[in-house]
Design a protein that fits this description.
Helix content is 70%, strand content 3%. It is mostly helical and 360 residues long. The chain binds zinc ion (2 copies). Keywords: Membrane, Transmembrane, Transmembrane helix.
Amino acid sequence: MDFNNKKLTRTTTFIHYVISFLLAIFLIGMANRIIWDIDGVEQRPYVTDFEIHTDVKKYRVLRQSIRDSILSIQDEKENVQLSVDLVQNALEEQQASFKTWISTRTATQSSQVNVEIQHRNRLLDSLRTSLKTEKAEILLLQARIEGFLAEERTYEEAIDKEISEARKLYVKAERAYDLHIFISRLLFVIPVLLLGIWLLLKKRKHSYWPLFRGVVFFAFYAFFIGLVPYLPSYGGYVRYAIGILLSVLLGIYAIKHLKAFVKRKKEELQLSSVERSKQIKNEVAEKALENHMCPSCGKDYLINEIFQSGKRKNRSGTLRVTTYCRHCGLQLFKNCTTCDTKNYAHLPHCYSCGDTLINT
Ligand SMILES: [Zn+2]
Ligand SMILES: [Zn+2]
């Protein structure tokens, strides 16, 4: 592999991130294991656990016996209906045969004929009577079914009421369970989160920062994934309050640091250009040269000979570098003391002869 500075920087950054993520992943795995064990200590409640504290079982048994009765009466009713159909058929047949017989009988009435008529009429009467009795029985059975259905409905209502009682108990127990899990997780996560924040604020310049960053990733994972879903959600107040608190703290920190950074930059610009040029680090100088920026104030140092403006430099005209920054007065280019070649003033060696460029 060639010694390519940019590539090396990129590779180093990549490897550092891989280290951070790897550490974070294993820490997360370990923490999940621990949290899982913590959660396992207590059983999550279920609605059915609370039905034993109510009369729901008793009502269910009663309802079942009512349902059984309804089924057996329905069977009975079906049997009677079947018999009604049979009697109805027999009656119709008898009526039809009587009609035929009476139309074909001879004009002279014999006593035998009268006996036959009486016999047939008795038969028809008895069929009609039993039809009437059976129909009345069906009505009676139907009325009993209606009565049982009404009773079943009252038990249904009672069961619903008992279940809603059980639900109330369950919701209370679930809330207590969530709170308990939340507190035990909190005791585990808060120290981790504090460690993460401390590392993030204080150790970014440390040479083991990639490892510390892994801990930071883990801390935020533990807080947002492991803890936030278990925050007691009393109308979302706690959740939003913690969100607001975190945003405010983060905001204050960021604003303070940005302000301090701008102030430091401004103070730097107050120093003499010689002082400033001494403070410019090599990597900053290199990046600034790449982007034709002044390494101290960050503004473009290229000028367009026609427009005298950096903004329209792509239009036409020749671009030229300025020896001094037009914005802050820092010296950008100078001649080598050995070979007199014009050089960028903030890198250590002359590109033409290799001699040291002395910062004056
Ligand atoms: Zn400048
Ligand atoms: Zn030189």
